[in-house]
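FIELD: query
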Amino acid sequence: MKKIIVLLSAAVVLISCSKVGKDEYLITGTAEGIENGKTIILETQDATGMMLPKDTVKVENGKFEMKGTITEPAFYTIQLEGAQAKIPFILENAEVTIAINKDSIQKSKVSGTYNNDEYVAFNEEITKVQKKLMDFQNKNMKAMETAQQTKDTVVINKLMQEFSIIQEEVGVASKAKYVTYAETHPKAFISALIIQGMLNDPTADVAKSEKLYNSLEESLKKTKPGIAIKAKLAELKMPAVGAAPVAPAAEAK
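FIELD: result
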């Protein structure tokens, strides 16, 4: 009986310590070295791809906080006033922690939720896959610029051919990484985004995409990407307009 009381007490403590309620989010951020009064904008993307502000706060003593409501996970960005890059992350019903790196926005840290931890880890893996392509670009950038200035078509064509080969190789490896991730992470929001992206490819394996969709956690199927995947699958499986109907199989006698 005492054990039950202790467990119940612990549960009450955990619930009371939660800083977010149902359909709420809380962003707690640090902005070390950034002067007071600098604006931080929380942005989301509309259906046309335009970035729209959802909330705006000011940095105070190296910190900032944003709180609001959200009914499902979605990609958002944080824009620091004067910064050239944005900080992408997944906003969801939870507390998200963002540590802004003022010297290199790309090195800012996002943590606090399963989906954001997975997003960070997945990006690190994809960066490794694409490193060969980035290395080639960095190594040959100057040579390409010189060749373009001198109109040296031999060098230009050679570099373009080499780049195309590496680009194709990296593209194949990246696709394989995307599929493997979606197969092994049915609870991750980015798995739904991966499947949605796969179906936008004209050469998509519809049967494979459908299998991945069916393996997703039910809550993900109810998100906007999940609903879009279901609709796309239904569209792709519909017979083409004007196609002759398939004759029924003859009954065995």
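FIELD: remark
Residues 128-237 form one domain.
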